[in-house]
Description:
heterodimer; A: about 260 residues; mainly alpha; two-stranded antiparallel sheet; 11 helices; globular; B: about 270 residues; about 0% strand
Amino acid sequence: xxxxxxxxxxxxxxxxxxxxxxxxxxxxxxxxxxxxxxxxxxxxxxxxxxxxxxxxxxxxxxxxxxxxxxxxxxxxxxxxxxxxxxxxxxxxxxxxxxxxxxxxxxxxxxxxxxxxxxxxxxxxxxxxxxxxxxxxxxxxxxxxxxxxxxxxxxxxxxxxxxxxxxxxxxxxxxxxxxxxxxxxxxxxxxxxxxxxxxxxxxxxxxxxxxxxxxxxxxxxxxxxxxxxxxxxxxxxxxxxxxxxxxxxxxxxxxxxxxxxxx
Amino acid sequence: xxxxxxxxxxxxxxxxxxxxxxxxxxxxxxxxxxxxxxxxxxxxxxxxxxxxxxxxxxxxxxxxxxxxxxxxxxxxxxxxxxxxxxxxxxxxxxxxxxxxxxxxxxxxxxxxxxxxxxxxxxxxxxxxxxxxxxxxxxxxxxxxxxxxxxxxxxxxxxxxxxxxxxxxxxxxxxxxxxxxxxxxxxxxxxxxxxxxxxxxxxxxxxxxxxxxxxxxxxxxxxxxxxxxxxxxxxxxxxxxxxxxxxxxxxxxxxxxxxxxxxxxxxxxx
Lengths: 262, 269
């Protein structure tokens, strides 16, 4: 455990080096919030609710969604890919560490930093500039856990795609397909309520919505009760399944690795 | 240093020669091309998916119908393709500047920007271009837009101008590497702005509208020029600037690039 904590600390320090990157992400996100505000204002027009959501609920959802999108970028797929390509991965294979846990720890620092530098300012901006009230309710207690699980789920997607680097040198396409699927099917851009009912019933059980819709609805739908618990259960279930699946995948993929010299 | 004056025709011949070699080399990686093209297709269709979901609950967005939005988005896809296909090399400028590999571009009797962009031809971007053209044709048939030779000429000129706007914004952002080395923050910001281009600019007000029209004129990448074809009878004065904005902006960007090239002294590595 101590060695993984050291990796987390190391990746936090690495993140500090890229502070201008965080700054640019913050500026980009603020502009996006402005765009989203006008876009959804225009969508709502005179309507008070659409699909059971008020403008405030939808805007809060979309704003936190875009912030979460930046926070949940692990870049594990790209880092793993380049480490396989350059043969650096061989160093980890001889160390007495669990590779999956090591990779998870290596992106945790960035996650913690970006929660502090992005999520907190966004919430302040929502409350004080856009005057959106955030209701304090019982489901909020689940939020920290749900956020961490969403992070682990994203890690599983990215790690899985990164593992394909053992088989192919072409990762841009696979990674882009993954990003697009997650972005569209998770309700990251549009709340799932806006999807046609039949599609929504399918999406409900897929792992994608567990990344965005589950934590975001904890904030935006304070009146729902048991549905939160069900979604939380689905989230935990997928996390266990995907952690196990990527372990199996790693066990198979690492066998095809050949590194020339070095 | 005197640079040999070459005619545009000669540059064109050189370009085809260089890219021909590059494409031959890339075609060794057929699987990469296929997988990347699928990725490109997915990411291009994502925004359309979002529009489709949105329009399943509303009939129009700021007065624009779904099919009109498809037209604007198709225009956008075609307009950003030259940046993707021809100017992709600028994503690597920050590495070239840091590692010193940029120095080699000073030693050829060619226009430096030409030499630099000729290093890469992004094949997967062709997917976006083909999809964009297809959707442009499809949506204008569905909207029953009357195409005359004159209109088509305006379309060609406005697409050229719109793509120059997109190229200028990204290239200028990439050029910040000459002064700051790590241009990633500026570059990713400029790239993100592009995503807002297919939305109707009329939904914005105040500062955002001014910014998207005059300062970072992403309105000219798709929305303003599209109006010339969708609602030619109701366009405002600013829209008629669409065919010219790109050229002006590119001239400024070229100046920034030239200054950067002159200011660059290497990083010592």
